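From the methods appendix. Each design record in this collection lists the tokenized structure first, followed by the designed amino acid sequence. Records were kept in a plain field format so they could be parsed without special tools. The example shown here is representative of the layout used throughout.

RECORD:
FOLD TOKENS (70 positions):
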């Protein structure tokens, strides 16, 4: 007997979370109080407004490439 994989979220829900997360990262950003972390992110061409990092689509997509599948 084969069991179906558990589906916690629908494809539509996953896409909505992805869209809203990207929008939040681009518009509001993330507070980065560490000077060392700020330096590393600036080397990756992340824009800053004071200590708030703002991530564009390209930087998000590049970061996702390094996330393990499991």
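DESIGN:
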């Amino acid at each position: 007997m084969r069991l179906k994989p558990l589906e916690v979220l629908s494809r539509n829900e996953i896409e909505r979370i992805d869209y809203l997360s990207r929008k939040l990262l681009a518009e509001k950003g993330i507070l980065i109080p560490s000077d060392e972390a700020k330096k590393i992110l600036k080397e990756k061409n992340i824009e800053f407004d004071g200590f708030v990092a703002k991530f564009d689509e390209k930087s998000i997509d590049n970061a996702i490439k390094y996330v393990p599948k499991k």
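APPENDIX NOTE: Residues 37 and 43 are 10 Å apart (CA to CA).
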